[in-house]
Write a structure and sequence with these properties.
By secondary structure, the protein is an alpha/beta fold. The protein folds into three domains: about 210 residues, Glycoside hydrolase/deacetylase (TIM Barrel, Alpha-Beta Barrel), CATH 3.20.20; about 180 residues, Exo-inulinase, domain 1 (Jelly Rolls, Sandwich); about 220 residues, Glycosidases (TIM Barrel, Alpha-Beta Barrel), CATH 3.20.20.80. Helices cover about 35% and strands about 30% of the residues. Helix 8 links the parallel strand 7 and strand 8.
């Protein structure tokens, strides 16, 4: 009897198993439809970035209105971001960047949405359908009052089950933000609020909470942020309700610009694409950029798009002061407390630097008798810790001015000021900004023509790393005349003297890292060098890399103000990240290898990497590099090297004489 019933039970089990398989397949299909790719993929850690742009969208409704964007236009925006290769992350990933030292993918966009009910209805399906990430800023007070224009608690409960949504609080000046955070925590224990948008005082205790929140003040900007941006005052690009997606694409392209040279002669209205105004009014009329303070404002500011992390810069403008007392050209501008600027105050030309709110440089470089009401050419060149000022094509001093090099990068732009509101105004009919590549002359034989190269082109040299002094060899006497000549050149020309010391694996077998670091420290202090170039390409093993990292850490502790340049093998880039962090500048030789190797190097390390280029004529190479207005006009070798530097955002070129 049991044998006859067995086939019936077997059929039952087959049906049950088939049903379970179908259920799992359907579940997997649904998950795939709303799947969001993890930003913690391995490539994000290797080829990572510290930059992102924050986009704050208005209310999303079915049809366009004066203060809301239509669902169709929002879909166009999101599709453009995805097709253009932007990765979208939530606020949790930004917290990991600032507080856990975790890199982001390259080309990151952060999407912030206001918590209107219309936005919940129309934007959520778009984000889900495209597999993006976004952050909803919740209006807690509106929820408490059951304001039907905003999301309800029921809406929020449904959204918290979606993996690609993050949440923040929209502070509108009503109620205590700390109390709202606690209220959210009580009602939704599984939701972590990572950010706050609105008119918030950064000195408020909420800014110092252990929760490590991100703050988004409501002020206009271009949305660019990086690891150098204060997380309590992140920049936001407020997207207009009727802004076309192709306009936004051009704006984002400029924000993440890799171009090395920018010239604007204002032949058309390019203000929206090339300039970001954070105060006052910026406009173009009849081929002239007009910068003016508003009726109730004392100042006006405008910034060149895509220059946020520029270090060595050549900035110039043809300008005239229409009204007001001061006009300034800024480079390495971080905020109002950190910058370098050249400009006029009355009839005087000043070069000023401010670090952490303290004015560390205030040099009156020129007194101009006729004033600045007529057009004049102003130019400021910053390279490393040296600045050179020009007025009407003439250098204002024989020697470059020395700066505090703790401020290494920032954006470029212009500002005007006057104590009387509405009085400040200026005009510019031509502006050029050039990102100067760092040029190091490495291992050049001092007696084979390097002297002429240094004498003629020191204005373009950042580092001079000769190997002819043989300072580390106990059996070789140092040519003191060469030594003095190099020091004088460094003092008068504005480059760092960082002689080359070659290190092999045998050096670490005969001496421990701390002993070797002590010898190098005494060498720098004895000859007053600006730093050292350590050629470590002969070190290949993990043991050598660990010893190098230990020695470099000791060197940076002993010589905090000296430049440490490391020439490393490609293998080191793949296995010893700690050593890459220790160096101020890296020099890499591809030696005919594939350029794809550069894709695997995280952007923070690429930004301080020099491409090693061997040449028989360093003078000719530098002449072409310095004189070229763009890459295409140079000789083939220079063009090829600069194309690599520009494409991969390298710091510059290390010229090695064959």
């Amino acid at each position: 009897m049991k044998d006859k019933q067995a086939p019936v039970y077997l059929r039952h089990w087959i049906l049950i198993i088939a049903g379970l398989c179908a259920a799992f397949a359907a579940r997997r299909h649904l998950q795939k439809a709303g799947h969001v790719e993890s930003v913690r993929a391995p490539f994000a850690r290797r080829a990572g970035d510290t930059r992102f742009v924050t986009l704050f969208y208005p209310r999303i409704s079915e049809d366009p209105e004066s203060h809301s964007m239509s669902r169709k236009l929002f879909l166009d925006h999101m599709t453009m971001l995805k097709d253009a290769g932007y990765s979208t992350v939530g606020l949790q990933q930004l917290c990991d960047l600032y507080y856990a030292d975790k890199l982001l993918p390259e080309k990151v966009a952060v999407i912030l949405l206001e918590g209107f009910r219309d936005t919940c209805i129309h934007a959520v399906p778009v984000i889900q359908g495209l597999g993006l990430r976004a952050t909803m800023m919740i209006n807690v007070e509106a929820m408490r009052r059951n304001n039907h224009s905003f999301m309800s608690w029921h809406d929020l409960k449904k959204m918290q089950r979606l993996a690609n949504w993050h949440f923040g609080i929209a502070a509108n000046g009503n109620g205590d933000v700390q109390e709202q955070l606690e209220y959210m925590r009580e009602r939704f224990a599984n939701i972590r609020v990572c950010g706050i948008s609105g008119p918030i005082d950064v000195n408020h205790p909420i800014g110092r909470t252990q929760e490590r929140l991100l703050l988004f003040p409501r002020r206009d900007g271009d949305g660019y942020n990086s690891l150098a941006t204060d997380p309590s005052c992140l920049n936001v690009l407020r997207v207009g309700p009727q802004q076309k997606h192709d306009d936004l694409a051009r704006l984002l392209s400029n924000v993440f610009s890799k171009r090395l040279r920018f010239v604007d002669e204002f032949n058309e209205d390019t203000v929206k694409l090339n300039w970001t105004s954070t105060c006052g009014d910026t406009s173009v009329r009849d081929g002239v950029l007009e910068l003016s303070a508003g009726p109730s404002q004392s100042s006006a500011e405008t910034w060149c798009a895509g220059t946020h992390d520029w270090s060595d810069v050549d900035l110039g403008a043809r300008f005239r002061v229409v009204g007001g007392r001061q006009l300034w050209a800024y480079v390495r501008f971080r905020d109002k407390d950190n910058y370098v600027r050249l400009g006029c105050d009355g009839n005087h030309l000043y070069l000023q630097q401010r670090i952490a709110g303290v004015k560390v440089r205030n040099l009156k470089v020129l007194e101009f008798e006729s004033g600045f009401s007529e057009f004049h050419d102003l130019r400021l060149v910053i390279r490393g810790r040296y600045a050179t000022a020009y007025l009407d094509g003439k250098r204002t001093s024989q020697r470059p001015f020395q700066l505090d090099d703790s401020l290494v990068s920032g954006r470029a732009g212009f500002a005007i000021w006057d104590p009387v509101p509405g009085a400040a105004s200026c005009q510019m009919d031509r502006v050029f900004v050039r990102r100067l590549p760092c040029i190091a002359l490495i291992d050049a034989s001092w007696h084979k023509g390097a002297y002429r190269c240094v004498a003629e082109h020191s204005d373009y040299l950042s580092y001079l790393c000769p190997n002819g002094l043989r300072l580390m060899s106990p059996d070789a006497a140092c040519d003191i005349d060469d030594h003095k000549a190099l020091l004088i050149s460094a003092a008068y020309r504005g480059h760092e003297l960082t002689p080359t010391v070659a290190l092999e694996e045998s050096d670490f077998r005969s001496r421990d890292p701390c002993t070797l670091a002590g010898e190098l420290t005494r060498l720098v202090q004895k000859y007053r060098f600006g730093g050292l170039h350590l050629d470590c390409r002969g070190c290949q093993g993990d043991g050598s890399f660990a010893a190098l990292a230990e020695m470099s850490a000791t060197l940076k502790m002993n010589l905090p103000d000296s430049v440490l340049i490391l020439s490393l093998s490609p293998q080191c880039y793949q296995t010893c990240e700690e050593l890459l962090r220790r160096a101020d500048v890296l020099a890499l030789s591809l030696e005919g290898g594939p350029l794809d190797f550069l894709d695997d190097i995280a952007r923070p390390f690429r930004l301080k990497t020099l491409l090693r280029v061997e040449t028989d004529e360093p003078c000719v190479f530098i002449e072409n590099l310095a004189a070229s207005g763009d890459v295409e006009s140079t000789i083939d070798a220079v063009s090829s090297a600069m194309n690599i530097v520009q494409s991969y955002e390298l710091k510059g070129i290390a010229l090695c004489e064959r």
